Amino acid sequence: MHKLNRRSIRLPNYDYSQTGAYFVTICVHGKEHRLGEVINNEMRLSPLGLVAEKQWIELGDRYASIAVPVFCVMPNHMHAVIVIADSSEEQSRGSRGGVTPPLRKHTLGQMVAYYKYATTKAINQLQNTPGIRFWQRNYYERVVRSEREFEAVAKYIQANPLNWERDEYR
To answer: What does the alpha-carbon distance between residue 154 and residue 119 come to, in Å, rounded to a whole number?
Structure first.
């Protein structure tokens, strides 16, 4: 049987658990418009969109070393920034009896995978559709390398509903 090789879109040899900001885009399976609709340049979330939004906010609670400062749920995708902070403070809080346990660093991929899993599970429970895929298999990411780039990405994300008519994911 012929096995397809999927080309990775990740940077080779890059440590996606290191401190930094990452711009991610996650698309609904088949790019179906299931998360809401843009009306008068404003995103109106559907019940499924509300689940996606809630799960994204809770991602910051699940992983203590990250922040999710800007995101936008669109009809068939979401854009967001994940900021992975230096977790050395978190490691020192976890020490017991003078022995510091090894720090378990989560990668960007693990965080996105958990988000997709949690969202899909909640949506399938809401719709009584166990096992149905919700998100596309992969996601897009870009390492944000400067404060100027961060500001441009944040502006792009916040303006996404205004630019929906020209959106490449539409």
So the answer is: 23
